[in-house]
Design a protein that fits this description.
Layout (H helix, E strand, L loop, with lengths): L2 H21 L8 H13 L5 E5 L7 H6 L3 E6 L2 H10 L5 E3 L12 E7 L7 H13 L1 E12 L4 E4 L12 E4 L3 H10 L2 E9 L9 E8 L3
Parallel strand pairs: 1-2, 1-4, 2-3, 4-5
Antiparallel strand pairs: 5-9, 6-7, 8-9
Helix pairs in contact: 1-4
Length: about 220
C-alpha cells in the first residue's frame, strides 16, 4: 500500500492491539457460514497443509486453522499485534511483515489465508499483494480472501473511541466479482465463493472467495 496508508494502518493497530486482542479472542465475530468456508478451505489443502495467515493480527484464527489439520504461521504489519500473537498463541510462529513483500520463498505454502487483511489496501496496491500471495503458494495450493462488499473507501476505527482511542484507518470495499476477476488474472481458478447479507451491527455485506493456483 502507499506509505501513507501503510503507516496509518500500522500506527492504528499498534495503538489498539491490546484492546482488540482482548475483545476478539477467537471466532466471536464470525457467522457459521463463514466458518464453513474456512473449513472447506482447510479440507481442500494438500499435505502438509502449511498455511500462511497473511495479516494474522493478534493470531485469533491460528488455533482454528490448526484444529482443522493445518500448520499455520502468521505475518502482520503491526509489531504490537504480533507481540500479542506471540503472547496469546506461542505455539504458532508469527513475524512482522508486509503483504506487499512477503518474506518467504516461492512455492512455500499449501494455503494462504487472507482474513480481512486486504481491506486497508487501496486498489492500486491490491494486485501487488495478490501477486505476492500467489507467489508463495505451491502449484495446486489455495488462497482464501475475505472482505467487506461494496464500493469506495470509508474511514473506520471510530469503534475504539469508547475505549479511549482516537485512531484512523481507511477501509476499501470491493465487489465479489472484482476480487474473483483479480484472482483469475493471477493464475487462480475460483473454486468457492460466498456473499452474505450484513448481520447487526455490521453495515455491509461480507464475502469470501477461494481460488486454486493452477499455473506453475
Amino acid at each position: 500500500m502507499p506509505e501513507a496508508d501503510e503507516t496509518l494502518t500500522r500506527a492504528a493497530y499498534d495503538t489498539v492491539a491490546d484492546v482488540y486482542a482482548d475483545r476478539f479472542t477467537a471466532t466471536e465475530p464470525e457467522q457459521a457460514v463463514e466458518l464453513a468456508m474456512i473449513d472447506h478451505f482447510c479440507a481442500l489443502l494438500g499435505e502438509p497443509r502449511r498455511v500462511l495467515d497473511a495479516g494474522c493480527g493478534a493470531g485469533r484464527m491460528l488455533p482454528y486453522l490448526a484444529a482443522r489439520g493445518c500448520r499455520p504461521e502468521g505475518i502482520d504489519l503491526s509489531s504490537q499485534m504480533v507481540r500479542r500473537a506471540a503472547t496469546d498463541h506461542p505455539e504458532f510462529p508469527c513475524a512482522v511483515g508486509s503483504l506487499t513483500a512477503i518474506g518467504f520463498p516461492d512455492d512455500t505454502f499449501d494455503g494462504v489465508f487472507s482474513w480481512y487483511s486486504t481491506i486497508h489496501n487501496p486498489d492500486d496496491d491490491l494486485d501487488r499483494i495478490l501477486a505476492e500471495m500467489v507467489r508463495v503458494l505451491r502449484p495446486g495450493g489455495h488462497l482464501l480472501v475475505a472482505f467487506q462488499v461494496g464500493e469506495g473507501v470509508r474511514r473506520v476505527g471510530q469503534g475504539f473511541a469508547a475505549a479511549g482511542y482516537d485512531v484512523v484507518m481507511h477501509r476499501y470495499h470491493r465487489s465479489t466479482d472484482d476480487i474473483a476477476t483479480r484472482l483469475r488474472s493471477h493464475g487462480l481458478e475460483i473454486v468457492a465463493r460466498l456473499e452474505r447479507a450484513p448481520v447487526d451491527p455490521e453495515p455491509d455485506p461480507q464475502a469470501v472467495v477461494i481460488g486454486r493456483r493452477v499455473s506453475g
